[in-house]
Design a protein that fits this description.
Blueprint: E1 11-16, E2 19-24, H1 35-50, E3 56-60, H2 72-77, H3 86-96, E4 101-105, E5 108-110, H4 112-115, E6 122-126, E7 130-132, H5 146-154, H6 156-164, E8 169-170, H7 171-177, E9 182-184, H8 186-202, H9 205-219, H10 223-238, H11 241-251
Bound molecules: coenzyme A.
Length: 262
Amino acid sequence: MTILASNDELISTAKEAGVLRIGINRPDKLNAITPQMYADMVAALQQAEEDSEVRVVLIHGSDTCFTSGNDLLDFAEHPPTGEDSPVFQFLIAISRATKPLVAAVNGPAVGIGTTMLLHCDLVYAGEATKLQTPFVNLGLCPEAASSLLLPRLIGYPRAAEMLLLGQPMDADTACAAGLVNGVFSTSKLFPHALAQAQLLAKQPPAAVRLAKHLLRKNSAAGVPEVIVEECQYFMERLSTPEAAEAFKAFFENRAADFSQFN
Ligand code: COA
């Protein structure tokens, strides 16, 4: 089943039966996210907050790729400079969403492709899912409050493997670790995620929002402060020689060499 919208918008939205779908749709760059795409997702999340017909948000990529994360070329050429940057605004919006967020993930879910899942309420993974947070590999640091939420969710040792080594986690491991709700074949993933979103949309909406608030109140305590702190370090790191070498290596299709740094 193809889950992409038929239009050529890089962020597609569609509202049906109480579910607002937000689709990441840039297949030629493995759904790498640009500032405009972040801004479009912020607008969609705001629409979800304000539109009483929307009861649930379903975030998805394509059948084969969720997202390869921030657009690295864009990051190198136009790094975010402050809290008004679209990526930061997106993190604020997704972390503050009051309506339930469901995600359907398959293939690469890199960087923010993994960390945004920490702010979703239900996450369904395709069998080809690879979650990866290679911030340190890029000379950067964790974002989206992942330095807080990931160890809280899956324990420090596994979080350290993901955040210090950037090692990918497959769908079954992510499910066993508690990062995702279930694993599905590619053809069954989106129908299942949509069916769960539609079930949620039929629940009493105020009770759902209250339950989400109570569920997140403790588990997400400290998140806004950590998002800001990580964001400040992240922006500083973008202009370091370590990051320059990592980005150059990616676009030269070679392994990065950090041996000269101390
Ligand atoms: N930003 C910009 N372009 C990206 C990208 C990104 N995050 N991820 C992939 N692309 C582009 C590649 O440059 C390539 O473009 P080209 O065909 O014009 O050369 C295209 O998408 C396909 O990527 P490719 O690397 O050839 O695919 P792959 O299947 O071999 O590898 C990944 C998939 C996800 C492992 C690999 O693309 C990758 O590591 N991407 C970077 C992920 C990342 O570090 N994200 C940022 C985290 S903060």
